[in-house]
Design a protein that fits this description.
CATH class of the largest domain: Alpha Beta
Number of domains: 3
Shape: globular
CATH topology of the largest domain: Uridine Diphospho-n-acetylenolpyruvylglucosamine Reductase, domain 3
Strand content: 25-35%
Largest sheet: 6 strands, antiparallel
Distance between the termini: 26 Å
Number of helices: 9
Structural class: alpha+beta
Radius of gyration: 20 Å
Order of helices and strands: EEHEEEEEHEHEEEEHEHHEHEEHEEEHE
Length: 338
């Protein structure tokens, strides 16, 4: 049987009972229907998943469809319809090369287009939901194709309608509305503004923003590099917790805090981890906290899924014991518990 470690950015994961490669929407739907009611695991880039050492007993469907359709208008910008299997960063790079603006701060995020709306991926002040107009899916429960408008996707921080209904919807394609232009949206993230040498609220050339974002991600070990085991990760393992204003006020003043419009406060998971006693380079078995960023848990070369889960559990428990806040995994856990 095929070891799923071949297809994940952690380079861990046991055998797949059955694995199917699909490249068209018709093949995706046929593979899902053939699986019936048995478990399926949709794999795109395998970059946001931790698969058990015992593998997966159901059907693994690897999606590689990368169809692209575009309608461009000089006034309204571009409507791009992208297949779920398209590599996300390749799509961002291509959009910039074609003169489109908006996605530049989302450069370097690993994974596929199909995973983007599920997680509502985001970075450096923007989320993908800002640019999505519709998501076409296959509904496993009703056994039919269903298209969601942006509002129907119920996007929130690192979540969506699809994520809150796990296993039901398989993304087939995503439609984006982005504008033509050489300048970015206003820069709203302090770290990025500093890297670009501009003031908060200023705009910058989209090509320069992409370069800056990629440099920042690389410095944090958040760019996948085959020969760099310090990047054998799923990016940020935990999401930034959102807590009440009262709970935020109880934290030290040094803790980064971002007030939200609903009265709650987003807190830096990285700060919580680092100030709970977890350090870069800490190890459990073959798993290691990245030497570049504490939010990235890595396979130092011979880790098992159990090692990575144990390291994640250690980080989560120390944050909870120190600050009374329980971190939530951003990574999809398949047959693994922390």
């Amino acid at each position: 049987m095929t070891e799923l470690s071949q297809y994940t950015s952690f380079h861990v994961g046991g055998p797949a009972k059955k694995i199917i490669q699909v490249s068209t929407q018709a093949e995706i739907i046929a593979a899902i229907e053939a699986a019936g009611d048995s478990p399926i695991l949709i794999l795109g880039g395998g970059t946001n998943v931790l698969v058990s050492d015992s593998g997966f007993e159901g059907t693994v469907i690897r999606i590689s469809n990368n169809s692209v359709e575009a309608e461009v208008d000089a006034c309204s910008g571009a409507t791009l319809t992208i297949g779920a299997g398209e590599d996300w960063d390749s799509f961002v790079a291509t959009s910039i090369a074609r003169g489109f603006a908006g996605l530049e701060t989302l450069s370097g995020i690993p994974g596929t287009v199909g995973a983007a709306p599920i997680q509502n991926i985001g970075a450096y002040g923007h989320e993908v939901s800002e640019y999505i107009t519709r998501v076409r899916t296959y509904d496993r429960e009703k056994k039919e194709v269903k298209t969601f408008t942006r509002s129907e996707c119920e996007f929130s921080y690192r979540s969506s309608h699809f994520k809150s209904h796990p296993g039901r919807y398989v993304v087939l394609e995503v439609q984006f509305q982005i504008r033509l232009g050489e300048l970015s949206d206003p820069i709203t993230y302090a770290e990025l503004a500093k890297k670009l040498g501009v003031e908060m609220g200023d705009k910058a050339p989209v090509t320069k923003v992409r370069e800056a974002v990629l440099a920042l991600r690389s410095a944090k070990g958040m760019l996948l590099t085959p020969n760099d085991k310090d990047s054998w990760s799923a990016g940020s393992f935990f999401t930034n917790p959102i807590i009440s204003q009262q709970a935020a006020d109880a934290l030290p003043n040094a803790a980064p805090k971002w007030p939200l419009t609903d009265g709650r406060v987003k807190i830096s998971a990285a700060w919580l981890i680092e100030n709970s006693g977890i350090h870069k380079g800490d190890e459990v078995g073959g798993a290691r906290v990245s030497t570049k960023h504490v939010l990235a848990l890595t396979n130092a070369g011979n880790a098992t899924a159990a090692d990575i889960a144990s390291l994640a559990r250690k980080a989560r428990d120390q944050v909870r014991d120190t600050f009374g806040i329980t971190l939530e995994a951003e990574v999809n856990l398949i047959g693994v518990e922390i």
